[in-house]
Amino acid sequence: MRVLFYVPDNRITHSYMPTLWPYVLKSLTPPGHSVTTVDGNIVRMNPEELAEFVRREKFDIVGIGGMTRTIHRSYAVADSIRALGVPVVMGGPHVTEEPEEALEHADSVACGEADDLWPQMLKDFEAGKLQPIYRSCEKPSLENYPRIPWEQTDFRQFRVLPRWASKALLMLGWGRYDVSISPVETGRGCPYRCDFCTVSPFFGEKIRFRTNESVIGELKLLKSLGRTLVFFVDDNFAINPRRAKSLMRAMIEADVRIYWVAQISMNLLRDQELLDLLKASGCVCVFIGLESVLPESLKEVSKTFNKPEEYGEIIGGLQRRGVYCVTAFIMGIDGDRPGVARKTWDVVQNWPPGFFPVFSQLTPLPGTPLYKSLRDQGRLEERHWLNYRPYGAAFTPKNMTPAELEKEVRAAWGAAYSPAGIYQRVRRMRDVRFVSKLLYVFATLAFRGIYFRQMTVRAWLKLIWQNRRSVREVFSLRSFTNHEIAPISEISPLPVQSAEPSTVTPGS
Ligand code: B12
Ligand code: SF4
Predict the structure, then answer these.
(1) Alpha-carbon gap, residue 315 to 288, rounded angstroms
(2) Ligand 2 pocket, residue 234 CB under 6 Å
(3) What is the pTM of this model?
(4) Do residues 229 and 258 make contact, with C-beta atoms less than 8 angstroms apart?
(5) Is the CB of 196 within 6 Å of ligand 1?
(6) Closest listed residue to residue 326, CA positions, set 380, 284, 376
(7) Are both 2-135 and 150-481 of the same fold?
(8) Closest ligand 2 atom to the C-alpha of 190?
């Protein structure tokens, strides 16, 4: 059989790393089938062009990803492909919650984790017995996680830097800064059950981990392929601190030395030993869901383990070790009122400067407690995903209008990523050395692109000109003599202790 996996395009951003599910499912595909993956954020095709590609390449079946944000695109391409008579299967968090809706566009839907379902779906398809719905009864153990054949992947598609910049780095002997990101999962599940999040309902509250050996094997493979940065896509990498420490020690012991980023909730980042190990094992950036600086809003979304009064200190603790952070905020929570962007920025701008703030509006995703409660209150735009509007409010906020909410999100991005906002942070990095500063400014401008459209060379040149004060600061003389935030090459391993994994301690 010839299988095509298609990652739907979001029509805004480029893909800077492979999306994991097609690679996991490919490695679980029984021998005798050929699997091709197309990422719509790399190869931009409209539904008709994709259908033409499917016809030309004679695919027998097409698997399409189904997340809420891009589900309208998934359905559009599925309709075009099915019009050719080629069957479509779908999977992912959205269609797991809305299988009936998905079946209006697909022949079959995998609900939940599909590690065990996919081989069965393929077998049934070959036998002409494809079922409409496949549902996993048990969450798959990750003890026997498949080996992903990354050596078969053409990573050149997933560039972060433009080609000329990669070449320039290579010529300057700074090839290690040519960021190339690879996704790796080490565990699934989260016990925290934040109201807006699909992870606990989808992956379950019980956490399952891969073995240290399996993760290290994958990291070594990626390193051998010249990959420079790993994104641990676990939703909370340190959810079991003892296990996280054990894995990081094992990475140090095995001398893996690949830089990595991960998502970790802020309550777990109080642990100084954990922070030391992050640094020692190569962590360069942590994604933290701070959500709000207002305790009343955190309470509304059941995330009171976040303590706003600790945010600055925790970010500082990471930065002292040369670890940057992406701080994610949600606006439109019931505690929020007009002016929330200003309130947030007033707090955030005083934090140690090496962070990248991102803002989104609260989004009711199907299957979450938030979704159910807004629906019960009649405040939900039903099936809002079919009428997708980037950063549009899909519900009626309690203390503002939807338009006011959209304005707040815009104001937050505007404050954080205006030339003045960026310079405010870069200026406070006076004591930081050149490479770190340069990377920070480049990454800041790239993060700006999540909200503001800036895909062309012209847009980037304009951006650089607008931010010339920050650029000047990067190239100032003091940048070449300072070293306060360690550059990412200075990873000094800690003494290695036991690398034995331990049992789960949720909620710690
Ligand atoms: C990495 C990640 C990202 C990366 C994606 C980059 C990339 N190239 O991968 C970044 C940071 C860019 C990102 C962005 C966003 N993300 Co995100 N992200 C994740 C994260 C943490 C990991 C995804 C992953 O690799 N998982 C591991 C794989 C193996 O699991 P999986 O994708 O679910 O696939 C399994 C099954 O679902 C199934 N399956 C999936 N697809 C298919 C298709 C077929 C045909 C079949 C048979 C089976 C199948 O099989 C797989 C194996 O079991 C997940 C949370 C999570 N743990 O999954 C959130 C998650 C997917 N993201 C989410 C959201 C909301 C977003 C954003 C909208 C956030 C925002 N406010 O902007 C954006 C939108 C991105 C876009 N497409 O435009 C939600 C989606 C919920 C939903 N209902 O859709 C999740 C679940 C997190 C959450 N808090 O709820 N994200
Ligand atoms: S801690 Fe993160 S992954 Fe876990 S439920 Fe909350 S938002 Fe989701």
Answers:
(1) 10
(2) no
(3) 0.92
(4) yes
(5) no
(6) 284
(7) no
(8) 4
| HSE-up (13 A, CA, CB side) for residue 124 | 17
- What is the CA angle 446-448-450, rounded to 5? 85
Q: What is the CATH number of domain 150-481?
A: 3.80.30.20
Shortest-distance ligand to the CA of residue 202: 1
Mean confidence (pLDDT) of the chain: 90
pLDDT tens track for 393-441:
999 999 999 999 999 999 999 999 999 999 999 988 877 888 888 889 9
In the structure encoding, which two tokens stand for residue 361, read together?
A: 């509006």
Atom 3 of ligand 2, residue of closest alpha carbon: 235
Q: How many CA atoms does the CB half-sphere of 302 hold within 13 Å? A: 13
Residue partners of 466: CB distance under 8 A and separation at least 6: 419
Cα distances from 213 to residues 28, 249, 260, in angstroms, run 19, 12, 17
Domain borders along the chain are 2-135, 150-481
Indicate the pairing of strand 108-111 with strand 88-91. Answer: parallel
**What pLDDT band is residue 486 in, cutting at 50, 70 and 90?**
very low
* Region 177-198 average pLDDT: 92
Is the beta carbon of 17 within 6 A of some atom in ligand 1? yes
Candidates 3.40.50.280, 3.20.20.70, 3.40.50.2300, 1.10.760.10; correct CATH number of 2-135? 3.40.50.2300
> Could you identify the atom of ligand 2 that is nearest to the CA of residue 291?
7
The tens digit of pLDDT for each residue in 71-96 reads 999 999 999 999 999 999 999 999 99
CA distance 465 to 455: 16
For the Cβ of 22 lying below 6 angstroms from any atom of ligand 1, the answer is: no
> Would the CB of 91 count as within 6 Å of ligand 1?
yes
Q: Which residue's CA lies nearest to atom 42 of ligand 1?
A: 91
Dihedral of CA atoms 349, 358, 164, 257 in degrees, nearest 10, equals 90
Ligand positioned closest to the Cα atom of 195? 2
194 CA → ligand 2 middle, Å: 6
